Amino acid sequence: MPSQQRPPNPTFWFIPGMLVCVLFLTALCLFFIHRQMNTEEERLHQIERFSLEQTQQLFRGEVEEKWQRAYRQFPGGVPEYQEMSAWDERLGEDVLGFCLDNSGMLLYPAYQIYSQQDIALGEPSSPRPTASRAKELPGGLPAITLVLELGELSSHELQRQAGLVDSLLQTFQSGRVPLNPVSLRWLERLQEQCRRRNDQEAWLRRESGVLRLVRQTQFAEKFLARLNLLLRRNLYNMARAEMPAQYLTSDPSEEPVLVVCKFLQRPPLGLLGVAIHLDRVCQTVEDRVARASWLPAEVKVRIQKESFIAASEKLVERRILDPRAPQYIVQGQPRDFAAFHRRAWHKNLLYLATVLLSVSAFVLVLFFGNRALKEQERLSKLRTDFLTNVSHELKTPLTAIRLHAETLERTLSAPKASLAATVETIIEEVDRLSLLISDVLEFTRLENDKKKFVWEAVDLVPVIRESVRLFSQQLDEAGFTVSLDLPETLILQRADRDALKQTASNLISNSLKFSPLQKTLIIRLSRNGKRAVWEIEDRGLGIEPRDLPHVFEKFYRGSNLDPAISGTGLGLTLCKAFIEAHGGKLRVESSPGHGSRFTIELPAREQEKEEGSGP
To answer: Rounded distance, CA 122 to CA 136, Å?
Structure first.
């Protein structure tokens, strides 16, 4: 069966294929450029998200540290009011301590809620019965405040009022007079007057003391009811002291305060806690973040109240600082927006330039590669045309020579034996040249993919015997010992008889040429499962190890081969091509001075069918 038609020349598809590759690479480069444009922003957002997470952890750690310090420092047993006041002062300006008994009354700070109408601001206090005296203001609070509000005072009068303020602070801090809603209004006014005179250290200290009283009163007004509710809910819970700390937050519209408290099992003490003013805590956390080693220099973190957050910016990451501090937003952003944009564009332009250079280099390689391929194709065509023309020019006269030589041989009489020998020599040389030219023609056909095989079932044994018979005279004259180990029959289901015969002829011819000393030729044929194993072995010169990987390459001849030994370097190339066209394998084993063994494996017909085809 003839082989399939030759496929189109691959060079035909080179330009369209390369064009498709260029377009694909261009699209791929544009895609990566688009991604690269967002890489810097994505990297910045990752850094900002990491920084925000670290900031949130620092905030929670700061709150927990303040609570744990207050809880550890609280006096043991049932402390006196002065002990709790000293404990409260040690907590710092931004933390207020408190303690409730089991009935819900504030043991510290002392606080009393009025159920009657509050005293009007600015009115002088009137005498009250002794039973209600605890509910009244200290007699000096309104007077001191009003005097300080009058304006400029003499140094003597100012010194006198300072002493009265100190005495008033001592009165409240000792718990002798509880705080109440009315005192809050006067204390706020007194704080304002102290602030006006805080150019002196003493007045600054007085302002801080009044501010603490104001905050204690505000805390009691906002959280006392909620703390009482918390106590009532756990009044009969015997394991309430084992419960974790409880958190209460202020209203988002009010000053941000976080209350942390825990139940006690020290009657009459029922609940201990602290009120943390978050403004100072957030400022502390922001300062610690700014000094942190993990914060990159290009990013800064800010903690702000939600109402102060500016419009959205795509380079900014923000989130709520903590669920217990919903008034605050923690925000990560570049330190310098303009510098970030410049740096991102510089990197993008550098990446774009690199991609363009790569594409340009690829186009140049494509251009010069195409030129080189066309030149190689031209040279290959010239060589093939030359070999084809030369082969045909040589084969035509050789055919005529052989025809006349055979005619002469038949017509010569017996006495003219010398002339017959001469004619026989002519025929042998013609056969040799014919074999050489056949190799060249077959190689040309293979190079141009024009070789057509005639596929049929072929018995390999007669093919081998016929090939040996063609060389029998040369083998006998050279003194070869020929050993044939062949079965009766071994049929190949799909083979080309001429190609197999030419393969055998080339291998036998090589044994003749390269066996100058030990003249032995061994040919074996056997079956190995579904494959025929054909071996041709000699005891000739052998092949150098460095030449073994190249023996099947076209035009290749051994590096140490005697130039007097004829050959084109095409015989083994054709053998390998023919065997592989049959679906087989050809391999060689050789060592210098010990000869060579060529092993051919070919697919054979199944043994049952082979036996059934016999006579």
So the answer is: 14
